[in-house]
Each structure stands twice: as structure tokens, then as C-alpha cells.
Amino acid sequence: MRHFDLTPLYRSTVGFDRLFSMLDAKGTEQQGSAYPPYNIERTGESSYRITMAVAGFKEDELTIEAKEHVLTVSGDKHPEGEDREVLYRGIASRAFERRFQIAEYVKVIGASMEHGLLHIDLIREIPEAKKPRKIDITSGDKTEHKQIEGETVAH
């Protein structure tokens, strides 16, 4: 395993301690299970999709939960009828739990299944109060009050 020294990044950033700690921990922890495989893709400027290969699972055997900044997808396969004898099992049917760290203001807008793939759609919606805004610069000795998006500012 490779270990990256993130110390130079700590010196030039403010407020990203948690992010760097998570990256550092991910680099040093043992690789977990790769089951089930998944893709994360950007589908628009502020929209994303997680696609998981969950062949053999039904919708009622899957659970999707979003809590704070963690999206948890789990699957628990119901036992099949005991009247069948499986001679070879190549299709995985074990229970799983996969967690995704999601950024602030990202929310799940829907989930669907097709052809054994679970699609989870997410969107990032930044509140108006948190979006950047342009501040006009005035010159002179006058003290004016300007209205900037609902706030009164003295100049």
C-alpha cells in the first residue's frame, strides 16, 4: 500500500482537516469487500448517479438510507425455497452494506432498478444564502446604504 504525506496540504488550507483525515485513513485501512461493484458518475453540473450491480436482489430486499452525510445501501437476501438443491453457486447472494460519504447539500432524489442495476440519483442544491454573490465597489466619501440580496450594507 502507498502512503501519501498530506502535511503540505494542511499548511495551505483552512477547514479541510476532516477531509484530509478521511483521505489519510482511507489510504491506510485494509481494502474492504468489493461486493457489490458500483459506479459513481456525474450526470449534470450538480447531479450524480450511483449505480450498483445487485443482480439477484429484489426491490424489497434492498434498503437505501441517507442520514447526515452518509448514504447507506444494504441488501439482505431472503432465503430461497428449500426444495431446490444448488450444485454450484456462482451468483453471489450474500448480504451486504455499502456506505458512501456524501457532501453537504447533496440529497437523494430517487432510486430505481433495471436489469439487475440499482440506480441512485443525487443532486447538490446549495441554498441561496450560501451561493457566492457579487458586491459592488463604490468610490468617494459618501456613506450610502445599498441593498444586496435582502441585506442593508453601509458604504
UniProtKB/TrEMBL annotation:
CDD domains: ACD_IbpA-B_like (cd06470)
Superkingdom of the organism of origin: Bacteria
Domain SHSP stretches: 29-140
Region (Disordered): 134-155
Keyword tags: Stress response
Keyword Oxidoreductase: no
InterPro entries tied to this protein: A-crystallin/Hsp20_dom (IPR002068), ACD_IbpA/B (IPR037913), HSP20-like_chaperone (IPR008978)
The family this protein is said to belong to: Belongs to the small heat shock protein (HSP20) family.
Protein name: Small heat shock protein IbpA
Source species of the chain: Pseudovibrio axinellae
Classification of source organism: Bacteria, Pseudomonadati, Pseudomonadota, Alphaproteobacteria, Hyphomicrobiales
